[in-house]
Amino acid sequence: MVNVLITGGTIDKQYNKLDGNLVLEHSYLKNILEQARCTIEISIRTIMLKDSLNMVDADREMIVRACMETETDKIIISHGTDTMVQTAELIDKRVKGKTVVLFGAMIPFTFGYSDALFNFGLAVASVQSRSRGVYITMNGKIFNAGNVRKNRTLGVFEEIG
């Protein structure tokens, strides 16, 4: 069993036709699972629906606590890309004995030309095949927590050093 914790981010944003803003109203993870035709046993829990730029320390503590309380040792977290690295580092320091994989998207799932499915698929493969630890899956790569950053100029994640 794999537990998926939803925290929000661009992956779950949708276009508000009335004011033209991107908003977070609900998660699209069930749609992603359906479209990806994922057949592994997955439990989904929504922790919050926040843009990661609006996350505070208390939000990250909620995520860490959810990881600790989750009975399974395989956890996937959907997360906004702007502060995903910080959350991964905190989880890496505090959560032991589990494989935790964070993923997100640079383009909302609802836009159709999104990286959400690809990044989720890599997260599913990673949580099943990687040893215990904390990882980020973005841009077709698997990064170790503490050794990754978001390159805002290029719009990709990359290893540090």
Describe the overall structure.
The protein has 161 residues and is α/β, with parallel strands linked by helices. The chain has a single domain (2-159), classed as L-asparaginase, N-terminal domain (Rossmann fold, 3-Layer(aba) Sandwich), CATH 3.40.50. 29% of the residues lie in helices and 31% in strands. The protein is built from 4 helices and 10 strands, in the order βββαβαβαβαββββ. It has helices at residues 29-36, 57-69, 84-94, 116-129; strands at residues 2-8, 13-15, 22-24, 42-50, 74-78, 99-103, 133-138, 141-144, 148-151, 156-159. The strands form 3 sheets. Strands 4-1-5-6-7-8 form a 6-stranded mixed sheet, with helices on both faces. A two-stranded antiparallel sheet has the order 2-3. Strand 5, helix 3 and strand 6 form a beta-alpha-beta unit. The longest helix is centred in the C-terminal third of the chain and has 14 residues, at 116-129. The termini are far apart. The mean pLDDT is 94.
List the helices and strands and how they pair.
Blueprint: E1 2-8, E2 13-15, E3 22-24, H1 29-36, E4 42-50, H2 57-69, E5 74-78, H3 84-94, E6 99-103, H4 116-129, E7 133-138, E8 141-144, E9 148-151, E10 156-159
Parallel strand pairs: 1-4, 1-5, 5-6, 6-7
Antiparallel strand pairs: 2-3, 7-8, 9-10
Helix pairs in contact: 1-4, 2-3
Low-confidence stretches: none
Strand order of the largest sheet: 4-1-5-6-7-8
What is the number of domains?
Answer: 1
Number of strands: 10
Largest beta-sheet characterization: 6 strands, mixed
In CATH terms, what is the fold-level topology? Rossmann fold
Alpha-carbon distance between the two ends: 35 Å
- In the CATH scheme, the class would be Alpha Beta
